[in-house]
Specification:
Order of helices and strands: HEHEHEHEHEEHEHEHHEHEEH
Radius of gyration: 19 Å
Number of strands: 11
CATH topology of the largest domain: Isopropylmalate Dehydrogenase
Largest sheet: 6 strands, mixed
Strand order of the largest sheet: 8-7-9-6-5-10
Structural class: alpha/beta
Helix content: 25-40%
Strand content: 15-25%
Distance between the termini: 15 Å
Number of domains: 2
CATH class of the largest domain: Alpha Beta
Shape: globular
Oligomer: single chain
Number of helices: 11
């Protein structure tokens, strides 16, 4: 299965039961707009953690009903994060949504050795993009967590992304290990990493998937460019996953596809016992909604 856009994914979720979502620092209008929209669409049952009276006031202003038992009072960022993570750890929630708190504060609670919910050696971020100029969703990783991944970290990042796509229903995701060139070049160590990942993928190390690399962005997403350059690969022009060589490359790629290219974006952090949305505090309600949608799709 391939997902062409967020609207298609939303349609596929129509008959699934809602998931319990814990919202950390829920005292934010944009976050609550997204959460209530997801609740109306049957995607989630929210538990709201944060400044209780402020949450109830925002909900009233939005015309939304809240069961008082759905709202749990917590103080500062650290308190909101700790209480939210504990709810996930105890099994009370199946996904974690970041509200009006700093990403670092939330992730500090997530990775705490004694009380956190880290489940993988490497946690990574995936930006999911619905771009007008591309024929299906793109999954860009990692533009938000691992600054300069070595080969072992790239293995984990790729595995997280491939497993994520399979959670969403992909049978054999196509992954492109992006580089500036298509040949192994000593002065560009990321090209050797890309070639190693391709070899490991062909041996089945990442499960059912196709891994190509080194491959440039144009060849990964434009079949016509691949034909002109004589680059033959089933991933060329049809990549699902774009594995960036560094956090800078992944961040720039995701934001350019979202901003300049007019795409819609969702984001999720993988490698914990539950998916986590970490949208910017200034993100629009729609972007936060799409992130909730993606997390709700994981089964």
């Amino acid at each position: 299965m391939v997902i062409t856009g967020f609207s298609e994914l939303k349609t596929k979720l129509r008959d699934l039961p809602p998931k319990t979502a814990v919202v950390a620092a829920a005292h934010d209008e944009h976050t609550l707009q997204a959460v209530f929209a997801a609740r109306r669409d049957g995607l989630i049952r929210p538990i709201l953690v944060g400044h209780r009276e402020e949450i109830l006031s925002i909900a009233r202003g939005l015309g939304e009903e809240l069961d008082p038992g759905q709202v749990l009072d917590a103080g500062d960022d650290a308190g909101c994060a700790a209480r939210s993570v504990e709810l996930i750890r105890s099994g009370a929630g199946a996904m974690l949504i970041k509200g009006m708190l700093q990403t670092g504060a939330l992730l500090k609670a997530v990775v705490n050795r004694d009380t956190g919910i880290r489940a993988s050696a490497v946690m990574s971020h995936v930006a999911i993009l619905d771009v007008p100029g591309y024929h299906k969703l793109l999954y860009v990783t990692d533009g938000g967590m691992v600054v300069a991944p070595d080969l072992e970290q790239k293995r984990h990042i790729l595995r997280n992304a491939v497993d994520f796509c399979r959670f969403l229903g992909y049978d054999r995701p196509k992954a492109a290990a992006l580089c500036a060139v298509e040949t192994v070049t000593p002065s560009m160590p990321e090209t050797a990493d890309a070639a190693a990942l391709k070899a490991e993928g062909s041996q089945g190390d990442f499960g059912p998937c196709l891994v190509e690399g080194p491959i440039s962005l144009d060849l990964a997403t434009d079949a016509g460019a691949a034909r002109v350059k004589g680059y033959h690969s089933p991933v060329a022009g049809d990549a699902d996953i774009l594995l960036a060589p560094s956090i800078a490359a992944g961040n720039l790629l995701g934001k350019s596809l979202y901003g300049l290219a007019g795409g819609e974006m969702a984001g999720v952090v993988l490698g914990a016992s539950a998916p986590i949305t970490v949208n910017s505090r200034g993100a629009a309600a729609e972007e936060k909604y799409w992130s909730i949608l993606i997390c709700a799709a994981m089964n």
